[in-house]
Amino acid sequence: MIEIHKSSDDLARQKYDVLVPTMGALHAGHQSLIEIAKTKGKKVLVSIFVNPLQFEDKNDLKNYPKSLDSDMNLAEKAGADGVFTPTEDVIYPGTIVEISAGELGEKYEGKSRPKHFNGVLTVVKRLFEITSPKIAIFGEKDFQQLFLIKKMAKDLNLPLDIISAPTVRDKNGLALSSRNVYLDDNQKRSAQIIYKTLQKSNLDDMHKVLLDEPNFKLDYLEIIDENTFLKADKNTQNKRAIIAGWINQIRLIDNMPVSTKS
Ligand code: PAF
């Protein structure tokens, strides 16, 4: 039987090796994170907390999908030993000491979502403090988030390893996301343009592909160096294309390694 924890005192009596931080609305992408976590440590904890600090749009926060019962089932089936469902005052009991995501926190996702990454880093650091895992696992789908969390762990010398897990996609290549529930069938078809775009190996070809889908409104498309998150140049070894945009009001992001042969 999966254990349910609501407070930090409650958690202090347990020792979890691996933490899978989530905001709930769990899907097959989270399932894969939990399954990978289970191969890395004996006891896996899934946290479910919709962090108000990382939502600049309060309607987005209010409407964020919630499905606690099915989340519990999915977490248990995937092999989690515990679920941590704190309230806001457990995570932020006093004055909030916000972590800054620095310059990169204001680019790409951070440009459209000011302060978003400060909120992400702040909650992730609190979750690490409360749950003291040896390992924490994050999906590659939020590649800028993953980069910034790894950087924070290194900069602050946090005593844990950050592990990344590949993006899970549907049969048409659409990256799984809790926000996909907002897409109807036509919008899902339009969203396939993102995967098609990411198949190309240079920005010109990517932009050409995007012309085929007027329903996708591009926010940014860039090829970056995975190790620095700076724009890639001809010497970059590990290139990754990052993309974000909207279908109607629904924001979608994705990324994929780019062949260095181009
Ligand atoms: O990726 C997410 O679901 C969230 O940003 C995270 C890492 C759980 C922090 O709230």
From TrEMBL:
Signal peptide: none
One GO-annotated biological process of the protein: pantothenate biosynthetic process
Keywords linked to the UniProt accession: ATP-binding, Ligase, Nucleotide-binding, Pantothenate biosynthesis
Pathway involvement of the protein, from the record: Cofactor biosynthesis; (R)-pantothenate biosynthesis; (R)-pantothenate from (R)-pantoate and beta-alanine: step 1/1
Enzyme nomenclature, EC number: 6.3.2.1
Catalysed reaction, written as an equation: (R)-pantoate + beta-alanine + ATP = (R)-pantothenate + AMP + diphosphate + H(+)
One of the Pfam families matching this protein, by short name: Pantoate_ligase
GO-annotated cellular components: cytosol
Family: Belongs to the pantothenate synthetase family.
Entry protein name: pantoate--beta-alanine ligase (AMP-forming)
Name of the top EC class for this enzyme: ligase
GO molecular function, one term: ATP binding
